[in-house]
Structures are given as structure tokens and as C-alpha cells.
Design a protein that fits this description.
With about 190 residues, the protein is an alpha+beta fold. It has 2 domains: about 10-85, RimP-like superfamily, N-terminal (GMP Synthetase, Chain A, domain 3, 2-Layer Sandwich), CATH 3.30.300.70; about 95-180, SH3 type barrels, CATH 2.30.30.100. It has helices spanning about 15-25, 55-75, 95-100, 160-165, 175-185; strands at about 25-35, 40-50, 80-85, 105-115, 120-130, 135-140, 140-145, 150-155. Strands 7-6-5-4-8 form a 5-stranded antiparallel β-sheet. It is globular, with a radius of gyration of 18 Å.
Length: about 190
């Protein structure tokens, strides 16, 4: 599945292996980045595929498996620090499904190039339309952005987001089937 902020260079060669490893363990990859040139840090953010909360034990399990994979593949020649974590509450939105999952929450989106004269959009997510476009309602009005045009995106830390996290009511992951179902009902009026 396509993601924003995919790794480049040698780490890109094993990106699919890492995704497969995590899926076999019951996790979804949110972000994988190698950050910094001096004392680089390999950052992996993941979450349980079933929508459960990420635990310290999950991070340790992933760290052990990833360390073993990195020892075998050896994609990074210099010494680095491995950091495995949850995506957090004000998480990055890296998969198209994330934009449907967090519909109704505030987000910031940056595009690769100008869209309607700007690259930065901040507003409320309106979900996914037409299979690969994201609606975001900003102060200036609605914007519909192609997922492939996005460079990065993240949820904005708001009281609503923290209250949902505290109450355990953050949205569960959605599937491609959910996305197609919501797409086919777009424009219909909910029953009252």
C-alpha cells in the first residue's frame, strides 16, 4: 500500500520486507524514516492492525524482530539508534486509509507542489473521495487533494482528539472495503 514519507536510499530496499514482517506480527507500519546524517536515528512507528492500543511490549517485540532483520540485511552502513514507537495521538497520516479513519478530526497537510496557489492546508478531514482524493475543510473552504500530490500530513492536537483518546473512542482502522463502501455512499443523505 502506498504511504507518504517512504524511506529513500538503502532503507527503501527493505521497506517491503519490514511491512511484511510487521503484517505477519499483526501490526501496520505507519512510518519508517532514517533521520539525521551524524548519529542517525531509524524511526519506526507502528500500530496493531486490529486497532488496539500500542503497548511497550509491542514496541519491544517489534524492536527485536526488526533488529534481527536489519542484522541480516544490513542496509545501513553506519551506526544508528533504533526507535520503535506508537504513532501517538497527534500522529502522522501516511496511508490513504488514515484520512478516512480520522474523518472529522483536524489535520495539517502539505502538498509536493502548489494546489490552488498554496502548499499547506489546515482544517477538518472530510474523508476519501473517488478512491484517491482527500477532502479537507479549511477556513477558506473545501479543498480536494490527490493523495499522490501530498508530501506529508498529520493530525492536529485538539481537545476533541485528546478526549477521544482518553475515552478510548479513537476510530478503529478502516479497510479498503470500508473505503469503497463509503465512496459508493458519498453524496447520499443519512437517514434521520
Amino acid at each position: 500500500m502506498e504511504r507518504l514519507e517512504r524511506p529513500v536510499g538503502p532503507l527503501a530496499q527493505i521497506d517491503d520486507d519490514i511491512v511484511s514482517m510487521l503484517e505477519a506480527m499483526g501490526f501496520d507500519l505507519v512510518r519508517l524514516l532514517l533521520i539525521g546524517s551524524q548519529n542517525p536515528r531509524l524511526q519506526l512507528m507502528a500500530e496493531p492492525s486490529n486497532g488496539d492500543l500500542m503497548t511497550v511490549e509491542h514496541c519491544e517485540e517489534i524492536s527485536r524482530a526488526l533488529s534481527a532483520l536489519l542484522d541480516v540485511e544490513d542496509p545501513i552502513s553506519e551506526a544508528f539508534t533504533l526507535e520503535v514507537s506508537s504513532a501517538g495521538v497527534d500522529r502522522p497520516l501516511t496511508r490513504l486509509l488514515d484520512f478516512e479513519r480520522f474523518k472529522g478530526f483536524k489535520a495539517k497537510v502539505e502538498t509536493r507542489f502548489l494546489v490552488d496557489g498554496r502548499r499547506r492546508f489546515s482544517g477538518t478531514l472530510g474523508g476519501v473521495e473517488d478512491g484517491n482524493k482527500v477532502r479537507i475543510t479549511t477556513e477558506e473552504g473545501d479543498a480536494v487533494l490527490a493523495f499522490s500530490d501530498m508530501a506529508k500530513a498529520k493530525l492536529v492536537a485538539t481537545d476533541d482528539l485528546f478526549e477521544a483518546a482518553k475515552a478510548g473512542t479513537l476510530p478503529k482502522p478502516v479497510s479498503l472495503a470500508d473505503l469503497k463502501t463509503s465512496d459508493s455512499t458519498a453524496g447520499s443523505t443519512p437517514a434521520s
